[in-house]
């Protein structure tokens, strides 16, 4: 079997050689890796991001080793799987006209953003507001030089597929369902938060803080950056709970179930989920799972 030392020597089909050949040395000084144990069995959980940079790779040997030893890779949602992507796209389809959902000022600001980003307005047509928000976030990240395709979760899934490892989804299309669960008012509030963040040049600062925190292994900082945009309003708290807190008990139940399987699992979860209030680590502990961070 190919060694996991090859992992992250490729990231996407189009950036195979360039992405990691240009990285002099990896900078993950304190990687997010936990040993999970229950009933005499052990598995490992790797804390990831949905975005990445070349200096994240290659990952530390401790992570490579645990991946090699596992039979199955478990991810939140395998976005390299067409069925998962298609399911998300189906949830986003709407016949509502976006101009009917926004005020004149909101529509003007959105139009100005699309023009500045050189995005055809047709890109947001026929999509529900939650998907428009996600699409705009992806566009802005690309403008800032980061990409979901370079995130450790996506890269690990691509490598697992190349190595013929079986991949299972902790949430799969349910992850999109969680995003799609936002009502119109909540989605509109999210769009306004995004446009305000871009207008006030906060997005780039947040991304830089998140990337630096990931390099340093500072999970509390990642959680803070990930959640602070929701604010303290009732609507913001509702969104945060739906996107983060409410999902953790169900995710913990699925991960806990892997201990009953014959095959060994290597779990990849967004690192920020393991920190803050009502986090995934706490949800796992409530199910009798012991966690130890591997240094």
SSE blueprint:
Layout: H1 16-21, E1 33-38, E2 41-48, H2 61-69, E3 72-75, H3 82-92, H4 98-101, H5 104-116, H6 129-143, H7 152-162, E4 166-169, H8 173-180, H9 184-199, H10 202-216, H11 219-228, H12 234-243, H13 248-257, E5 265-270, H14 280-285, E6 290-293
Parallel strand pairs: 2-5, 3-4, 3-5
Antiparallel strand pairs: 1-2, 1-6
Helix pairs in contact: 3-8, 6-9, 9-12, 10-11
Summarize the structure.
This protein is of the alpha/beta class and 295 residues long. Helices cover 49% and strands 11% of the residues.
Architecture overview:
By secondary structure, the protein is α/β, with parallel strands linked by helices. It has one domain. The chain is 49% helix and 11% strand. The chain is globular. The N terminus is likely disordered.
Keywords:
295 residues, alpha/beta, six-stranded mixed β-sheet, 6 strands, disordered N terminus
The share of residues in helices is: 40-55%
Q: Kindly estimate the percentage of residues that lie in beta strands according to DSSP.
A: 5-15%
Give the termini separation.
Answer: 26 Å
Large-scale geometry: globular
The residue ranges in which pLDDT falls below 50 over 5 or more consecutive positions are 1-24
Number of strands: 6
Backbone CA Rg: 19 Å
Content-based structural category? alpha/beta
Largest sheet: 6 strands, mixed
Spatially, the strands of the biggest sheet line up as 4-3-5-2-1-6
H/E series, N to C?
Answer: HEEHEHHHHHEHHHHHHEHE
Number of helix segments?
14
The overall pLDDT average reads 84
Count of separate structural domains: 1
């Amino acid at each position: 079997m190919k060694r996991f030392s090859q992992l992250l020597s490729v990231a996407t089909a189009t950036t195979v050689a360039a992405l990691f050949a240009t990285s002099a040395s990896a900078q993950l000084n304190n990687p997010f890796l936990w040993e999970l144990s229950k009933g005499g069995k052990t598995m490992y959980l790797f804390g990831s991001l949905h975005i990445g940079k070349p200096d994240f790779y290659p990952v530390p040997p401790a992570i490579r080793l645990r991946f090699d030893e596992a039979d199955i890779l478990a991810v939140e949602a395998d976005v390299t799987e067409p069925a998962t992507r298609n399911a998300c796209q189906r949830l986003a389809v709407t016949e509502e006209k976006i101009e009917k959902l926004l005020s004149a000022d909101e529509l003007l600001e959105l139009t100005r953003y699309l023009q500045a980003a050189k995005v055809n307005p047709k890109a947001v047509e026929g999509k529900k507001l939650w998907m428009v928000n996600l699409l705009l976030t992806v566009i802005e990240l690309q403008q800032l030089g980061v990409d979901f395709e370079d995130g450790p979760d996506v890269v690990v899934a691509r490598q697992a597929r190349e190595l013929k490892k079986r991949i299972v989804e902790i949430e799969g299309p349910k992850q999109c369902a969680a995003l799609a669960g936002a009502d119109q008012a909540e989605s509109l509030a999210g769009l306004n938060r995004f446009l305000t963040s871009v207008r006030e040049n906060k997005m780039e600062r947040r991304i830089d803080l998140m990337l630096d925190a990931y390099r340093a292994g500072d999970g509390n900082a990642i959680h803070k950056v990930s959640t602070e945009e929701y604010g303290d309003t009732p609507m913001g708290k509702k969104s945060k709970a739906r996107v983060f807190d409410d999902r953790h008990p169900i995710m913990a139940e699925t991960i806990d179930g892997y201990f009953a399987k014959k095959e060994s699992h290597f779990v990849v979860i967004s690192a920020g989920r393991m920190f803050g209030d009502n986090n995934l680590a706490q949800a796992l502990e409530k199910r009798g799972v012991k966690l130890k961070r591997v240094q």
